[in-house]
Each structure stands twice: as structure tokens, then as C-alpha cells.
Amino acid sequence: MVQSKKQRFLFLAFCLGPTLLVFSVITLYPLVNGLYLSFFEWSGMSIEKTFVGLANYEKLFNDPIIPQTIWHDYFLVVTKVIGIMVLATYFAVALTQFRIKEAPFYRIVFFFPNIMSVVIIGILWQFIYNPDAGLVNSGLEAIGLEEWTQPWLGDLNWALPSLVLPSVWAGIGLFMLLLMGGIMSVPKSLYEAADLDGATEWQQFWRITVPMIWPQIRVSIIYIVITTLNGSFIIVQIMTRGGPSSSTEVMGSYLYEQAFEQFHFGYGAAIGMMILVLSLATVAVLQLVLRRERVEL
Amino acid sequence: MATVTFDQATRVYPGTDRPAVDKLDLDVGDGEFLVLVGPSGCGKSTSLRMLAGLEDVNTGRILIGDRDVTDVPPKDRDIAMVFQNYALYPHMSVSDNMGFALKIAGVGKEQRAERVREAAKLLDLEDYLDRKPKALSGGQRQRVAMGRAIVRNPRVFLMDEPLSNLDAKLRVQTRTQIASLTRRLGVTTVYVTHDQVEAMTMGDRVAVLKDGLLQQVDTPRRLYDHPDNVFVAGFIGSPAMNLLELPVVDGGVQFGGTTYDTGREAIDAASGSTVTVGVRPEDLVLTAEGDGLAVEADLVEEQGADAFIFGRTIVNDKSHDIIVRVDGRRPPEKNSTVWVRPQPGHVHVFDATTGERVGD
Fold first, then answer.
1. How many CB atoms lie within 10 A of CB A137?
2. How far from B117 is each of A67, B103, B150, B324, B359, CA to CA, in Å?
């Protein structure tokens, strides 16, 4: 269809205008405002803001809690990526390749946590970890492993690892579906050819399935990393509130504590900037590491 | 090298009653090029996949050489297969594709490269060894698929419609290349196609299947000249053989105005008062008015050397389509009526009910 230049411009403006507006209001403005606030000392309520220059960043570099929160976040990132990817891939392969009759049922079961609010998941797992009546401890007692029982979320060493399980459990379904989509689009004849070529199921997985679904694997990993760095706050806030004694404090929960509980808004904004920079840097590195030539059929 | 034997091999897909392949008995000689041909759904691909081990054999046996491979996994059958869509590994280079089986088998890098190079030379692929399949043309991909089979030096080649993704011109070229290549290598080949021209030009022998049942297995010439039943008669040859249901009379069959002598045995063997008579378009000759069958020429297709009359004839008040090949320089007018008669010795007689050949 032939369009006049003006028509074309109007159409593009009509499409892009609302997007630009929304993007400006909910992404661009907070970003710039956050950067702006990080140079101030502000309680978040008073009219007065005091310009302090780079003082908040100086504080950031000298705060002994900060390295801990970074380490806790990356601990969650690494364990979640490994846990979710291994299990999601395993289930995706099982549900597509092994001809399980009840596959649709399992697909729903695994996806179920994804339609539940993280708040509910957090509360649910709080019950499971409950030292007295929780499933974990009573289970251990039932099989005679009483010495293994822990206060889990209340233990300095066990609280952070205990957060991994609910996070992984909540994440498997979505990535399983994503990987299943990838696996199902691999032509069946490739596996038949590999069968004839003498490749075992294991070799077929590593030499055909993995390279063929690499784009999905890459997207999954990056997505898990981003959502963990930005969103680990929720599960921490629900289950441990950063405790006991900062042992589960993550960057997000520390930001919340500083800005909204102790009313150091400027410092909170500086932490926010740190999360942004770390997220961007991590994703950039991942993009580079996970880059592979695109496979086209 | 090896022979291949299907011994009453049957495949019934789960959830269906009718076998996809029904008690197939077939012997393929050592070094022979056998073509399986038939319309879609006839069981030709299933038969090939049973031989490959990609499909279960429900009853019966399959042997490669003297070895019963019915329950042997594909990788241990010492066969190589060329798939319809080539099934090249998209993430591997041409040489990796060709060498994959050797790599899995633990063949050393040097030896692997050597064998890949040899096959590439044979197929004119030497310049493309480092490319990925997506950077190749359809014909080149097809050759890589062939190369992957050749590199393994198998006892049997299996080919599942390997030319159907190529354009018409390339298909004709590649057809001859494949036939001469497999003959030169002397490897037993089982080749599946739905294209009867491919079957006739490539096969040492051709097996015709329909509805999971083997109809006839013979040399191309014999299939053409001596079809065992009405299906084979109609399937082999282009344009197709004319099949007319004609009344039996004393001394032969009533061919319009004349009686064609089919011989006593044919008439005796037939079960009814009519028989199905098959005559190829080139075996009909134009005659004088009143002699033989009257044909209404609906369309005359001039192809240069030959012309084909696509017309209708009335037998027993029933209209039959009929095709006649005539001299391309003197074709009859469209919508005219011509009279035709079969050349003696080129008539096929089939039982009108069973469709089996009863004489000629």
C-alpha cells in the first residue's frame, strides 16, 4: 500500500507515543530521579534535602553490610541458575522425549507455582521450614535423622541456603515450558539420524539438544540472573526480613531497610544505583560468555 | 556388502487396525539397487524405517546378510540413511556432519578427516567442508547427506525420497549421479520414492506397494511390459495405461467394432463376462472408421515428436477416459472422432473382479 509521508509519520507516532510516555514515566524518570536523589541526604518526607555530593557512595564503599548483601545476591544467582536450569532441562527433556503418558498433568503441576504469588510461596515455605511443626523437620524425624533437624530460617548458616529451594521450586515451571518449546521444535529426524550414527541418548542430549536449544537456555539464564538481582528482595522480605543478623540480607532488602525503615532515602538511592550497575555489568558479561553462533534450520 | 531380506515383516501402528506394512516378503540382492514405490500411505517409508530400525517390526523378521536384525538397534545394523529433509545437524560444519558417526565410533581425528575428504572429493564438496548447512544450496545439502552415508562405509544404503526437495532439473541430474555412485560403490541400496519415473530410471528392480501390500517386484522393463495386476498397470507409466472393461466374446474380447484375440487361456481364467483390458497409449493405432473403438478427442496435446489424444470412448453405455499417442506431425483435430485398435501382442488382460493379470 502506498502511504503519504505524513500518514506514515502519524501512524508511527500513534504507535510509539504511548510507549514512550509510559517508558518515560515508569522507567526513565525513576532512573534519573534515583540518580539525582543519591547525591542528597533526605529522610523521604521532609521538604528539606541536603546536597552531600558523593558522600552516599563513599558510605556505600565503606559499609561492611554491602559486600555481604552482594555476596548473598550472587549466591542466590548462582544456586538458582544451576538449580533451575538443571531441573527445568531435566523435566523438559523427560516430558518431551520419554513418551510419558501423563506428561500434560506433570506440565501443569510443574507450572503451578508460577501462577502463585511469591508472597504465598514465601509463607507456604515458612510453614514447611517451621522448626517445630514444619514438613522438613518432621520428615527428618520420621526417617530417624533427628540430628539433621535445624531451625532452618533461624540459623545463621542455613537461612540463606534455605531460601534457594523455594526460589528454585517457584522458577522451574516457566523455564521448563520455555525449554520444552525449544526441544519440540528440533526436527525429529535429527535424532533419528543421530540414532543411526550411533549416538547414545546422552550424546544426543549434549551434541544435538543443547546446541539446538541454546537460544532458549541463554535467555533463561539471563532472565533468572536479572530477576534474582532485582527481585530477591520479595522472598527475603517475606521469609526472613534479612535476618538472622543480616545473614540473608540482599541488596534489595538492604535498600528497603535503609530507605523506608531508617529513612536514609539518599543512601537507598545510591544502593539502587549499585544494583543497576551490577545488573547491567553481569548481563553484559553473560551475553559475552553465552554467545554462540545462531543455529538456523 | 550384504543382502536384505524382509520375511513376513508386518508393522501395525498403535491405535490402528490395518497394518501399515502387511506381511512383506522381499529379497534384495547383494549390491542391488531396489526401489520401493507407491502412492502416499502405501507403506514404503514404513518398510524402509523398519529396515533402519526406526520403526518396530510387530511380526516377521528382517535380515541383513544372514543376520536377523529385527530387534537390533539402528546403530548396530551397519546401515546409513539419507533422509527426505537430509536431517543435517545445523550447528555442525559439513565435515563435522559427515564425520559425526565416525567421531561417535571413536575413529581418530586423522583417519576421520581422511575419510571425510575422500567422500567430499567423490561428491564434489571439498570446497564446502567448513560451511554450515544453512550456507549451502539444496543440491549441496543433498550431497552432504549422501556424503554422511558414504563416509560410514555401511553394508546397506537407505534413502527416503532424497530428491523430493530439489527442483525438477536438479532432480534429474542428481538421479543419475546417485544411481551411478551407488553402483560404483557396489553397496546394496533400498530407495523409497513416490515418483514412478525415478523408480523406473534408477532401480535394478522396483517393488510396487499399495495399502501396505507388495503388489509386484520386478525389473523396470518387466513392470512396464508385464504388470501383475490392474494397480501396477495403472501406476507404472506416464501417461497411464488405458484400462477398459470390455465384454468377453467368442474368440477374445469385444474391442469396439472388432474382436481382439486374447487367447483361450486368458478368457478361461477370467471369472466374469467382462475383463479389464489394459493398453498403453503408444500401443493404440489409428484405424479406419468403424474398425475398433471410436474415440471422441476432447483435447490434443502436441509435444513435438508425439501428440497425445485425451478423449472418451463409450463401452457398454459407459464412458471411459482414454489416451492415445499419435505421430506429432499429423495429429487429429480437437473434437474430432478417431478410431483406434491395439497393436497385437501389447494388450494386458486382467480379471474384472480381482484385478489380477490373466493373460495378454
1. 21
2. 57, 15, 11, 52, 54
CA A206 and chain centroid, separation: 25
Residue A185 lies in a domain: yes
Q: What mean pLDDT do residues B38-63 have?
A: 92
- Residue B1 has a pLDDT of 65
Picking from A185, A190, A195, A197 by the largest number of B CB atoms within 10 A of its own CB, the best residue to mutate is: A197
Question: Which residue of chain A comes nearest to B93, CA vs CA?
Answer: A295
Q: Quote the minimal CA–CA distance from A295 to chain B in Å.
A: 6
Residues 169-198 of chain A with CB under 8 A from chain B are 187, 189-190, 192-198
Q: Is residue A282 part of a domain?
A: no
Domain that holds residue A60: 41-265
Q: What is the pLDDT of residues A19-47, one digit of tens each?
A: 999 999 999 999 999 999 889 888 877 77
Q: Give residue-wise pLDDT tens across range B91-121.
A: 999 999 999 999 999 899 999 999 999 999 9
- Asked whether residue A159 is assigned to any structural domain, the reply reads yes
Whether pTM exceeds 0.90 = no
A294 close contact with B: CB closer than 8 A = no
The residue-averaged pLDDT of A247-260 equals: 88
Hey, how many other C-beta atoms are within 10 angstroms of the C-beta on A178? 17
ipTM summary value: 0.84
In this structure, of A25-34, A81-90, A245-254, A269-278, the range with the lowest mean pLDDT score is: A245-254
- CATH of residue A99: 1.10.3720.10
Into how many domains does chain A fold? Answer: 1
Is A201 inside any structural domain? yes
